[in-house]
Amino acid sequence: MDLVQFQKDRCKGCELCVGFCARGCLGMSDELNAIGYRYAKLVNPEKCTGCGVCADMCPDTVIRVFRKTKKVKSHV
Amino acid sequence: MDLVQFQKDRCKGCELCVGFCARGCLGMSDELNAIGYRYAKLVNPEKCTGCGVCADMCPDTVIRVFRKTKKVKSHV
Amino acid sequence: MIEEIIFAGFGGQGILLGGGLIAQAAMKDGLWATWFPSYGPEMRGGTCNCLVACSDDEIGSPIFNVYDTALIMNLPSLEKFGPMVHPGGLLMVNSSLIRVEKPRSDVRLVEVPVNDLAREAGSDRAANVVMVGAFCAVRSIVRPETVADVLREKFASKGPKVIDLNLRALEFGRRAVEGVTV
Amino acid sequence: MIEEIIFAGFGGQGILLGGGLIAQAAMKDGLWATWFPSYGPEMRGGTCNCLVACSDDEIGSPIFNVYDTALIMNLPSLEKFGPMVHPGGLLMVNSSLIRVEKPRSDVRLVEVPVNDLAREAGSDRAANVVMVGAFCAVRSIVRPETVADVLREKFASKGPKVIDLNLRALEFGRRAVEGVTV
Amino acid sequence: MAETLTNADVECVFERPHALIDRPHHYCPGCSHGIYHRLVAEMLDEFGLTDHTVGICPVGCSVLAYDYFVVDMIEASHGRAPAVATGVKRALPDAFVFTYQGDGDLASIGMSETVHAAARGENITVFFVNNGIYGMTGGQMAPTTLPGQKTTTSPKGREVGGMGHPIDMCKLLQSLPGVAFLARVPLSAPKHLKTARKYMRKAVQAQLEKKGFAMVEVLAACPVQWHMEPMAALRHVDENVAKVFPPGVFVDRVSAGSEERPAAGGGDGGVVRTETERQ
Amino acid sequence: MAETLTNADVECVFERPHALIDRPHHYCPGCSHGIYHRLVAEMLDEFGLTDHTVGICPVGCSVLAYDYFVVDMIEASHGRAPAVATGVKRALPDAFVFTYQGDGDLASIGMSETVHAAARGENITVFFVNNGIYGMTGGQMAPTTLPGQKTTTSPKGREVGGMGHPIDMCKLLQSLPGVAFLARVPLSAPKHLKTARKYMRKAVQAQLEKKGFAMVEVLAACPVQWHMEPMAALRHVDENVAKVFPPGVFVDRVSAGSEERPAAGGGDGGVVRTETERQ
Amino acid sequence: MSDTRRLVKGNEALAIGAVHGGCECFFGYPITPQNEVPELLSSLMPAHGRVFLQAESEVASINMIYGAAAAGKRAMSSSSSPGISLMMEGLSYIAGAELPCVLINVMRGGPGLGNIAASQSDYFQATKGGGHGDYRCICLAPWNVQEMYEHTRIAFDLADRYRVPVFVLADAVLGSMMEPADIPEQPPPIQPIEKPWATVGLNGRSKHNIVNSLYLEPEVLSDHNEKLQVCYRKITAQEQRFDTRLTEDAEYLLVAYGISARVAYSAAKLARAEGIRVGLFRPVTCWPYPSEALRKIMSRAKGTLVFELSAGQMLEDARLAAPGDHPVAFFGKMGGVLPTPAQVADEIRKFVEGLHG
Amino acid sequence: MSDTRRLVKGNEALAIGAVHGGCECFFGYPITPQNEVPELLSSLMPAHGRVFLQAESEVASINMIYGAAAAGKRAMSSSSSPGISLMMEGLSYIAGAELPCVLINVMRGGPGLGNIAASQSDYFQATKGGGHGDYRCICLAPWNVQEMYEHTRIAFDLADRYRVPVFVLADAVLGSMMEPADIPEQPPPIQPIEKPWATVGLNGRSKHNIVNSLYLEPEVLSDHNEKLQVCYRKITAQEQRFDTRLTEDAEYLLVAYGISARVAYSAAKLARAEGIRVGLFRPVTCWPYPSEALRKIMSRAKGTLVFELSAGQMLEDARLAAPGDHPVAFFGKMGGVLPTPAQVADEIRKFVEGLHG
Ligand SMILES: Cc1ncc(C[n+]2csc(CCOP(=O)(O)OP(=O)(O)O)c2C)c(N)n1
Ligand SMILES: Cc1ncc(C[n+]2csc(CCOP(=O)(O)OP(=O)(O)O)c2C)c(N)n1
Ligand code: SF4
Ligand code: SF4
Ligand code: SF4
Ligand code: SF4
Ligand code: SF4
Ligand code: SF4
Ligand SMILES: [Mg+2]
Ligand SMILES: [Mg+2]
Questions:
Q1: Domain of H324: which CATH number?
Q2: Interface test with D, best of H2, H179, H280 (most D CBs within 10 A)
Q3: CB-ligand 8 contact for F225 (6 Å cutoff)
Q4: CB atoms E27 and C43 under 8 Å
Q5: Residues G95 and G116 placed together within one structural domain of the fold
Q6: H188 CA distance to ligand 8 centroid (A)?
Q7: Local confidence band at A76 (pLDDT 50, 70, 90 cut-offs)
Q8: E neighbour chains, 3+ CB pairs within 8 Å
Q9: In sequence order, what are the residues at sequence separation of 6 or more whose Cβ sits closer than 8 angstroms to the Cβ of residue H194?
């Protein structure tokens, strides 16, 4: 599963998440979603720290962010 | 002529002029005037300095104040 | 039967209260009654009057401009309302303050020195009650005893001294017109 | 004669302007014309359409819900307005974006790849003008030359490049339906 | 010992300003409205404004103010005088436009119009009469009623928990850049009248200089609805009201020196030479 | 290199607060209303208020806010939310009552209701969205529009001489003793959202402690009516808007420490663990 | 006559009526001639543990009512003509949101600032909707102090029953006059009405309540309006109230409401003394207007004279009620002038002569 | 057809009409669906050296108008239903003070917030007085973009001539639609009307002017009201305007105004195509209502169907105009729904069948 998940068809393509992700994890699609917008997506998942900033700045609460549990982290 | 003149029938008997005359020149009548009030009048004309305070504090602009002209003053 | 009364004077003479006494007593005596106040544009001072109607039947308009009885407490009121008394009506004037210069021949004029009597009773301010007392005696619309009851209730909280003063004023008014026939 | 047209798509496709071109040209051609816009509650995005009526007589209601002609720029509009074309009416769809799955047999369907043609003419944004050009050619309500005049006036301030682009788009639209009989 | 003087021997040092029509006011005995009216009229005289002034009076005890000033007057609906004044001033930019408003009018129902006229820097002069009560309607609580003060709608005294603290309009408006002049003064003693005149001159000057919104708030007495004798009412203003509403200048963007009486010839008449001028 | 993780391996660090209904908003792309909505919902979750809250939304772009919060909601007429809130709060003293208002709503037509609710110290919490424009009606000038800013009714830019300076509501209300908490923050960056949450907690706490009127003004972007891209709009907030409307706390009479997240258990759900909490 | 009669001012009776009607929240702004209402309630309401708040304006008052009514409380304001005009937007919102509330208008002379004497020139505003949109308010018109009390008391029940605003349309004379009224110490118990729609906080409820008058889609707003109209038709069917005097044998009809009806009643008696058989029809509800009853009585009479303290407002409703060519004439007074019964009797005479001349 | 025809939005035509009518001061507050009016005027007015000010509210707007009108200027505001409701107190003051002004109401769906679609449910408010007191406003109801321009332009003349407020009662469709309208570049010259009563400063005049609606004495206020009524009667005699289509041989009548009249006109043609001889009567002034003309036409017809975008408001005026037992039926739509001509034609058919069934 992606650690940053989008409700794709609710994205309005404002690009705020993309702009605020300091690590450049996010990008915009070329296609339009169901409501006619290019949508945001995770393009560099490996860089993601799970900081939540993208989700916080999303006006449409499109994004959910997960982090590996400590257990998993230590295990990795 | 009086140096402090009242439009007697316009006086509402509020006594502010009396209260504010520092020299105690003014007093109230016993009779009522045409509009039903006891009215203010000059009772100690000789004490009056023509300072105008009574007139200034009168809410109904009942009072006119005169002073002797310099000429008259020097003459007296 | 309907009796339409104006009680008129200037602010501070207890006009509204005086009229209220009559209306209250009328109610107690089982009559219909209305009371309506009226004042000039001034906040203080100026003219003041109230209209009181008492009737043994439901009362229509509480406002009227011709009167069965006029209770007149000062000169401007006499000038304004004196001419509006019905022929055959009753005109009661406060002779402490007013001299009736040209009495109308077609109305019953009763002069009562209400300020003097009030002072005698204990306070100038009870002049209105003196007038009510006199009115009750001249026209038997409301019973003086009922007015006395009303006064007792009204001033219950003010203590017996005030009540006594007012009852005295009422009585002085009544007595002042003793023998005056209606 | 009255021709009642809906021009429908989503915000940003120049729908309102496209309808305005037709109305303006109709006026220039001496017809009566009305234009009425309608959008969803969204400030941006969402559906957008306008109703245009052209007639040789005074026009009653500028609002109608059955159409002689529907100029359809996107799929939701086809779904919503396609069924509301009069039997025998004209349905023109933007085949760059829409594939008509079940064409109605009782209306004239004309498919025009307006986005492709617009891009060819110089800009995607002129798709609305392509559609107008096609419409003029299929239905002789307003003359394409008049539309061209309108475009020249409208974009006069924007310079010859913009005008040329639009005239090209208009022409591409006209040509795309050459031979299509009404 | 009274001397016998004739007209020729005396000069008048105080009489009714020309701008104040010579007729009795309807105000109660000792009401401060009368004094403030006269001061406003003095300003109109001093600055020679009577010929091109439009005054706006509100609903409140001063509802009949239109009968008292010689200038053109408009009666405004309750609280809206600043909007009416805006309409007039925009229509007639060269007219001198003033409003005269009570505290219920200006600070309660008219709050929005007041704040916005100030915020817009509307070139008008507001004469504000704060007597802490609704005089005209019979003594109800005003936004400026003091804590604990009994009124007909705060029969147990204003309880600030439920009814709020008194609103200090000068403090409220102080932050607005559109305000050119803002000051408060009690009308409770001759020396304060002197100050009032100073402020009022500034407030007139602000408009003449097109500097923006100007307001002079006076702490006024309403002896009748306060149930006090006039003298006691003025003492109450000094001792209690002025504590809650501290007098002073809150904003002054007007040219220096304009609190002085305008140069002779400015005035079109009216002998109003009070202490201030004569000392 | 993407690992394959399952639900069991991860914990959610950010998801929709429970108090925010799971449905799309009607707001334009990049509109700050969406962010502020979520923050409000977070507060309702955090403080466990959803069960006894009444929210009041205004006329403005957020007119449909009643569709977005799980709590009981009232749609108020334009500008009157504080009066409506007063009615609700007086009727239901134990309810948590908030308004959510735009700048046209709160600072233009609703000025009087705002000032008076503040002056009365009405125990309500106001979430104020200042985007410097009338969003809903198509981009007209607001009382908060910046000097020089072009809008559909100031086509040559706001000229402060005739149209007035922008109104700073925090500064305006600051002097009122009825105000318990008053602060302003831009919604233009993650760090500011952190601050916004702090302020909002205070503003909630003020009501819970019955301290009086509380308001948090956010500097918001309206990309559409500003004709800017969303990112550029937020930059504009930081670089220009925040200069005219300096952020900060203007009044704070709330108990210390209440800007922290309420103790666990206060919230009735919703995983909203943002930076603030996690660092 | 009852023991509980008191000599009381109309405005005071009205205030007591509010308390007895279960008014839980009062919001108002002072204005003559109704100041006794807030003044008395500023003591009575807190004494009963209820809410009294002097609002900063009438605009605020009506919106506070909107809030309190949304919260399920019996809420009321009182004002007079100019103040009521300021409430028109808020009132339309209240009606649109189907909230119950009670509004008192102690009418005074208009237009504009006018004066504080009795008038009936806000009839159109109260009955046809001074605000925007198709809404109606039940409108009760007391004619004596007793009804000032009763109407205000029952107004709360009516408002709650139908979820509509209810006007009590009084005037300066009724407000200021005193007369005996039968006002019990203990009010009759109130039948509380469930308000599951109220915004009081979820309190465990699963779906949130929304109080609202916005319906973006025309079809939906149309349905909402139709729902309102159904309610208004129901009220029209069930709540028409009127009073008649001397109508059994009446050849001519006087139609008047409120204070005018009292003058008219006296006038009718005067006219009868002159042999003119005139009766009085008094609408007690101005909306719903008692049209059916009036039409029935009119159809037995030769003509009708409408008397109002206005330029002719209720007149229109009387005309609309009139059968076929039934003549309806008008006598009005404006500006706070209350004519005497004799003047009205004169008008009756003239009208009757005109009919037969 | 003229050279000066432009394809223009109703709201824009209206704004130009204001400029051409000599509007000197505009004060307004944004509200949909009339925003093009202030938006356009925010450029046009300064360009013509006139006053444009966005007010802080509708309450402020109407009072700014009051001030500017008192100062002798042609002043106007524009709004839509809820905003107009907020102006009711101010409007009553303006009427009471005999000031001329122009008010635009681009009506939308109500009550309350309603929606922004076309409606005609503020007819009562505009014609019977939504404010307090006996006042009237001339009320013009355009039915096309041409009249949006014309009516606004002439409204200023009418206002000045009679010293009354004049409403232009439009709706969301008329405001937002475009159609060709004949709008000259140069407006016809304006005949200025002397305003010796205006408060502009004495400027040498010896008696001060007072703009006021306060008359403390009932008799004086009564006289003032009588003066207003005389003016209203004069307007009623001189300014009734209407339009008819297809009425010469009409057996049935449709009565409709504004946007409804356009639908009705199309419907009438449809009905005629089916053989129903129906004509259209269109009130152009809603007040004064063209009662005499309508009555005359009604008396030649078998029945009348009133069609409005409301629950039945203008209907009452049509009923009041109807002779004897002339049947007057009603078809209305609410909430912003504009029926199609076919739907209205259906109603005509049903009505006709009902008459004969
Ligand atoms: C819309 C409206 N609401 C209320 C009133 C009643 N009213 C007249 S004056 C007034 C308040 C007066 O108080 P203030 O402004 O302080 O003036 P003051 O009488 O104390 O000088 C009120 C409430 C009104 N005339 N109009
Ligand atoms: C009485 C009234 N006047 C005007 C309007 C029109 N109107 C709706 S929202 C609005 C202003 C919106 O601006 P703001 O409050 O700043 O909210 P935003 O849309 O910017 O979030 C206006 C003027 C209205 N609905 N009601
Ligand atoms: S959680 Fe942080 S790092 Fe990951 S995509 Fe979002 S903003 Fe970038
Ligand atoms: S911030 Fe949200 S709405 Fe905007 S692009 Fe990213 S996911 Fe989409
Ligand atoms: S002028 Fe001065 S001294 Fe003379 S009476 Fe007046 S106050 Fe007293
Ligand atoms: S101050 Fe004026 S009104 Fe008062 S008592 Fe003196 S003279 Fe009379
Ligand atoms: S009530 Fe008060 S403010 Fe009004 S006139 Fe009397 S004293 Fe002055
Ligand atoms: S118009 Fe502006 S405030 Fe309104 S939703 Fe769009 S971006 Fe947000
Ligand atoms: Mg005051
Ligand atoms: Mg905004």
A1: 3.40.50.920
A2: H179
A3: yes
A4: yes
A5: yes
A6: 42
A7: very low
A8: B, C, F, G, H
A9: none
E151 lines ligand 7 (CB under 6 A): no
- Which tokens belong to C130? 């003196």
Judged by CB atoms closer than 8 Å, whether chains meet at H119 and G133 is answered as yes
Does the pLDDT of residue C41 top 60, yes or no?
Answer: no
Element containing residue E56 per DSSP (H, E): strand E53-57
Q: Are H311 and G229 in contact (CB under 8 A)?
A: yes
Condensed to tens digits (0 to 9), the pLDDT of residues B21-70 reads 999 999 999 998 888 789 999 999 999 999 999 999 999 999 999 998 87
pLDDT tens for residues H180-210?
A: 999 999 999 998 899 999 999 999 999 999 9
G136 touches chain F (CB under 8 A): no
Asked if E167 and E175 count as a contact pair (C-beta separation under 8 A), the reply is: no
For residue G205, what are the domain limits?
Answer: 5-238
For chain D, the domains span 2-176
Tell me: do G254 and G220 sit in the same domain.
Answer: no
G197 and G256 within one domain: no
The residue among H238, H262, H288 that closes a domain is H238
Domain boundaries, chain E: 25-278
Low-confidence residues in chain E, pLDDT < 70: 1-3, 263-279
Q: Which residues of D80-96 are buried (b: 16+ CB within 10 A; e: fewer)?
A: ebbeebeeebbbbbbbb
E80 and H60 in contact by Cβ < 8 A?
Answer: yes
Give C73-98 pLDDT, tens digit per residue: 999 899 999 999 999 999 999 999 99
Mutate to test the pocket of ligand 1, among G27, G29, G31 (most ligand atoms within 8 A of CB): G31
Phi, psi torsion values for E248, nearest 5 degrees:
145, 180
Contacts of A37 in chain D (CB under 8 A): 45
Q: F28 CB near a chain A CB, below 8 Å? A: yes
Nearest CA to ligand 4 atom 6: A17
Q: What is the mean pLDDT of chain C?
A: 92
H159 and H292 belong to one structural domain: no
Select from 3.30.70.240, 3.10.129.10, 3.40.920.10, 3.40.50.2300 the CATH code of C2-176.
Answer: 3.40.920.10
A23: Cβ below 6 Å to ligand 3? yes
What pLDDT score was predicted for residue G101?
98
In a shared domain, residues G190 and G308: no
CA dihedral E132, F174, F47, F57 (to 10 degrees): 80
Q: Which pLDDT score, from 0 to 100, does residue E265 have? A: 40
The neighbourhood of ligand 10, an ion, using CB within 5 A, equals F 102-103, 131, 135
Q: Which of B9, B16, B53 to mutate to test the pocket of ligand 6 (most atoms within 8 A of CB)?
A: B16
pLDDT of res. F276: 37
pLDDT at G353 over 80: yes
pLDDT of residue E272: 41
Q: Which helix (H) or strand (E) holds C173?
A: helix C160-176
State pLDDT tens for residues F226-250: 999 999 999 999 999 999 999 999 9
G217 and G306 together in one domain:
no
Q: Which CATH class is domain A4-65?
A: alpha beta
Superfamily, domain E25-278: Thiamin diphosphate (ThDP)-binding fold, Pyr/PP domains (3.40.50.970)
- Which ligand gives the minimal distance to the CA of E138? 7
Residues H131 and H208 in one domain: yes
Contact D60 H5 (CB under 8 A): no
The residues, any chain, with a CB within 8 Å of residue C137's CB and separated by 6 or more, are: C144, C173, C174, C175, C177, C178, C180
Ligand nearest to the CA of H85: 2
Average pLDDT, chain D: 92
Q: Between helices H88-96 and H218-238, what is the axis angle to 10°?
A: 90
Residue C148 has pLDDT above 90, yes or no: yes
Q: Are residues H188 and H274 in the same domain?
A: no
Q: The tokens of H86 are what?
A: 């907020």
Task: Say what the pLDDT of residue B57 is.
Answer: 98
Which residue carries 């602060």 as its tokens?
F183
What number does the ligand 3 atom closest to the CA of A20 have?
A: 7
Over 80: is that where the pLDDT of F1 sits?
A: no
By DSSP bridging, strand B26-32 and strand B63-68 are: unpaired
Please tell me if the CB atom of residue H51 comes closer than 6 angstroms to any atom of ligand 2. Answer: no
Does any ligand 7 atom lie closer than 6 A to the CB of residue E193? no
DSSP F247: -
Ligand 5 pocket check for B52: Cβ under 6 Å: yes
Q: What are phi and psi of H231, to 5 degrees?
A: -60, -45
Domain count, chain H: 2
